[in-house]
């Protein structure tokens, strides 16, 4: 009997354990942190052995194959030992893909991937396809492969998940954009991170498609220097294509397989240029999957955005409060600031992942009237912006951040939570941070 060891007892770990058990593996789950009670209950119910708050080396190093949760770095001592022993260490996506004949649409990118994933799922589901949603969003992919029977899956894939693939390939891949992020996991080398994103296309064949942002420098550069077998489907705000998606005056055009779809930009529910790109990427998938044009147009006009991504919370005394807690890197915050049209009080800070704030300078000068630093260590943000804005305040909890913001605004202003950082210094995750912001705003 093959022995499957799973590092990490979260959603992807437990999902993989269930699928492994169903496929006849001897399964063991080991988590160096604490496994949540509801996951322990599931593991017990399936009679899967587990441990938490420790890694018992003998039990782990006796594996034939190991699934590592995406949050565990390659540099972790136990992972290094497994690699030294030549035991394959793979991701949940790699493990589960072998057990389904469903088509997969894999979506990666530094920003916009959740919105693009949710919109693609919405388009395909509205088009009547039997479709699952997994990866970084929704229920674990492996869990769904074990218990559901979908014809296709829309998968949001992080670079960490892609690092753990060997044979997996999506029939349709999307790279929304690439900007420096998570560099702490890539030896602070941007090219390593870019290469990681492009693993999404490494196993694709001539029958597969790669949808990509043709305006993105890092993507264009990689495609110049490297080869993929997949058919290329570019999208752009400024260029036009005979095969791909583009904007012409006030209309989005999708030209794929001799089929043309046009839609007025004003009819698309998502606002902002970055969302136009997300819409072009998702619509390209819908066209490739032969969803009816009428359905596509309808779905693009009624799609509700993603929670914690430029989410309008409330307007109080004519000040708009906006929750963009999902902006965990500089590039995401760039989009947020870029979309602001009124003087803005900006709440920023958290765990810095090697951020370079210089690209935000022009936007901060133009749009930001005050900065509230919400983090344990705000030195880098203060050094970057102290000469750019008149007012900077440091706080260490969300309630103080929101109350301070209220005092710094006048009628017609906006308050934007767009942290550009991870949340783990003061919050459980970006959702917790966003929910605390919304609660604090509602209590004003």
TrEMBL record:
Q: Name one GO cellular component term.
A: cytoplasm
What are the residue boundaries of the Mur ligase C-terminal domain, all occurrences included? 308-421
Could you tell me the EC number(s) of this protein?
A: 6.3.2.9
Q: Which UniProt keywords apply?
A: ATP-binding, Cell cycle, Cell division, Cell shape, Cell wall biogenesis/degradation, Cytoplasm, Ligase, Nucleotide-binding, Peptidoglycan synthesis
Instruction: Tell me which Pfam families the record gives.
Output: Mur_ligase_C, Mur_ligase_M, MurD_N
Main localisation, per the record?
A: cytoplasm
Where in or outside the cell?
Answer: Cytoplasm
State which pathway it belongs to. Cell wall biogenesis; peptidoglycan biosynthesis
Which residues are involved in binding ATP?
Answer: 109-115
Catalytic reaction(s) noted = UDP-N-acetyl-alpha-D-muramoyl-L-alanine + D-glutamate + ATP = UDP-N-acetyl-alpha-D-muramoyl-L-alanyl-D-glutamate + ADP + phosphate + H(+)
Q: Where is the Mur ligase central domain?
A: 107-285
User: Cross-referenced InterPro entries, in alphabetical order?
Assistant: Mur-like_cat_sf, Mur_ligase_C, Mur_ligase_C_dom_sf, Mur_ligase_cen, MurD
| Example of a GO MF term | UDP-N-acetylmuramoylalanine-D-glutamate ligase activity
Q: Which domain of life is it from?
A: Bacteria
GO biological process assignments? cell division; cell wall organization; peptidoglycan biosynthetic process; regulation of cell shape
- What is the role of this chain? Cell wall formation. Catalyzes the addition of glutamate to the nucleotide precursor UDP-N-acetylmuramoyl-L-alanine (UMA).
Query: Per the similarity annotation, which family is this?
Result: Belongs to the MurCDEF family.
Question: By what name is this protein known?
Answer: UDP-N-acetylmuramoylalanine--D-glutamate ligase
Its source organism is Flavobacterium capsici
